[in-house]
């Protein structure tokens, strides 16, 4: 059965082309994916991601429950903070990558991706018998991203002092709202959460406010070039047989915090040596772009791995992407042949899959300084 977000009728009025994404009908783009990408990088844009999962967790054991559920250490943050992590099964296979919002002392929100059913099943199973209550939340949110995002929100609320990975509860022109300084773009950005009854009114406000700064709404496809050049993983990047270690997310794994699901298996892999690795790749031609799902070989048809995603970055003007490869082929500079009839014939392994702003400086800018620009 086709699933629709709270914004479907808005897309129909805009005449936006619709695509299927995990069973959800979502807007591909409003203008074009490349234009919307540049809009976010240069000014400001907003999009909705109602298809993503969102679970509320509360109760006296909620902190310890989430500590065992995620690979990162919830103790790194305090109430009002957010943290990126992964939820794994006991074989270290990814169930979902998530952002945990610490709302209050014993109240949390787990904001995940497209694997809603698998996440629900796993979380509820592990909550059984614990002093926690898990609820699938019906709230919606708009993600507003780009250097001018603070200028847009500042028209309604003063959040210029909100730090990166922190959240605040505010009244947004009469709408009870939670704003978190997080997002998918690698730019200054915010997620604005509210009840679904306010969805259309908030969309109209965001459209009005963004227009003053050369921005507007964006569709799902703008997220692809953003994710490729920034190094944000999704979809096929989380290939079967991998874990946060192979995916290059080892920085988010807190082995020293004690038990969590997938810990023993990842420790075993770490000690034995990783067999595969997610790497950045680049072709020496800008057309056609690297596609996902293509076999990679090295030498006389020796299997090396498979591409996961690719895009010609509108800003960097480079044909870049990611692939999982057997560890022997993960050295930067390794040349691999692409088994494709229509795409680039060769790619080279890059030093990192974070091509744009690899140190993450843009996302940590001082919002008050941005207001002066």
UniProtKB/TrEMBL annotation:
<dbReference type="Pfam" id="PF01571">
    <property type="entry name" value="GCV_T"/>
</dbReference>
<dbReference type="Pfam" id="PF08669">
    <property type="entry name" value="GCV_T_C"/>
</dbReference>
<feature type="domain" description="Aminomethyltransferase C-terminal">
    <location>
        <begin position="277"/>
        <end position="351"/>
    </location>
</feature>
<dbReference type="InterPro" id="IPR013977">
    <property type="entry name" value="GcvT_C"/>
</dbReference>
<protein>
    <submittedName>
        <fullName>Aminomethyltransferase family protein</fullName>
    </submittedName>
</protein>
<feature type="domain" description="GCVT N-terminal">
    <location>
        <begin position="8"/>
        <end position="257"/>
    </location>
</feature>
<dbReference type="InterPro" id="IPR029043">
    <property type="entry name" value="GcvT/YgfZ_C"/>
</dbReference>
<dbReference type="InterPro" id="IPR006222">
    <property type="entry name" value="GCVT_N"/>
</dbReference>
<dbReference type="InterPro" id="IPR028896">
    <property type="entry name" value="GcvT/YgfZ/DmdA"/>
</dbReference>
<dbReference type="InterPro" id="IPR027266">
    <property type="entry name" value="TrmE/GcvT-like"/>
</dbReference>
């Amino acid at each position: 059965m086709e699933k629709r977000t709270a914004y479907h009728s808005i897309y129909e009025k805009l005449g936006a082309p619709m695509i299927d994404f995990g069973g959800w009908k979502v807007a591909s783009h409003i203008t074009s994916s490349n234009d919307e990408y540049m809009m976010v990088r240069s000014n400001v844009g907003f999009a909705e991601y109602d298809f993503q999962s969102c679970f509320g967790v509360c109760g006296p054991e909620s902190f310890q429950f989430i500590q065992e559920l995620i690979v990162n250490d919830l103790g790194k943050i305090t109430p009002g903070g957010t943290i990126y992590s992964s939820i794994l099964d006991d074989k270290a296979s990814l169930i979902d990558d998530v952002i945990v919002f610490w709302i209050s002392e014993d109240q949390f929100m787990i904001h995940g991706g497209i694997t809603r059913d698998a996440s629900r099943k796993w979380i509820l199973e592990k909550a059984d018998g614990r002093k926690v209550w898990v609820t699938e939340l019906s709230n919606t949110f708009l993600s507003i991203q780009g250097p001018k995002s603070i200028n847009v929100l500042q028209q309604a609320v003063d959040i210029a002092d909100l730090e990166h990975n922190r959240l605040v509860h505010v009244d947004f022109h009469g709408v009870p709202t939670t704003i978190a300084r997080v997002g998918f773009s690698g730019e200054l950005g915010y997620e604005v959460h509210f009840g679904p009854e306010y969805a259309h009114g908030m969309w109209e406000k965001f459209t009005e406010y963004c227009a003053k700064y050369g921005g507007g709404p964006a569709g799902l496809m703008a997220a692809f070039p953003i994710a490729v050049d920034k190094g944000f993983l999704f979809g096929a990047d989380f290939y079967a047989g991998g874990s946060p270690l192979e995916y290059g997310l080892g920085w988010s794994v807190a082995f020293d915090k004690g038990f969590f699901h997938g810990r023993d298996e990842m420790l075993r892999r770490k000690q034995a040596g990783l067999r595969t690795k997610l790497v950045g790749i680049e072709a020496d031609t800008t057309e056609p772009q690297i596609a996902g799902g293509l076999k990679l070989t090295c030498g006389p048809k020796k299997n090396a791995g498979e591409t996961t995603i690719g895009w010609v970055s509108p800003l960097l003007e480079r044909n870049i992407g990611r692939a999982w490869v057997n560890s022997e082929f993960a050295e930067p500079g390794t040349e691999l042949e692409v088994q494709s009839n229509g795409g680039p014939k060769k790619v080279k392994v890059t030093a990192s899959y974070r091509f744009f702003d690899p140190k993450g400086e843009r996302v940590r800018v001082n919002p008050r300084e941005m207001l002066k620009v």
